[in-house]
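Dear support,

I submitted the protein below through the web form. The confirmation email said the job was done, but the results page showed an empty box. After a refresh the structure appeared. I'm attaching both so you can tell me whether what I see now is the final result or a partial one.
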Amino acid sequence: MGGDNSLCPKPCSSYEVISSYLWRQECAASTTADWVNMRLDEIAPAKPLSPEQARLKSMKDRVKRGQEAVKAERARQKISAGQRDLGKVTKST
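What the results page shows now:
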């Protein structure tokens, strides 16, 4: 195998390995009956939204993206603070 990860045949990030693993777990958990029992409306294309519905959906999507951005920024700041603290500890020893 090419990468330093045994799950990935080529050099790849740990994110790719984890997402690949989770996808395989999800597929293994579902049964063939789950795939066969999909209702027609789950596979059929959705009707176009009215302008009011589209505007509301757009607003909801923007809120979700904003929430995800805040969550990612908080995580980034925690990592940054941890790295700073780690740097202080290693400098003092």
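Response: this is the final, complete result; the empty box was a page-load delay. The two ends are 40 Å apart (CA to CA).
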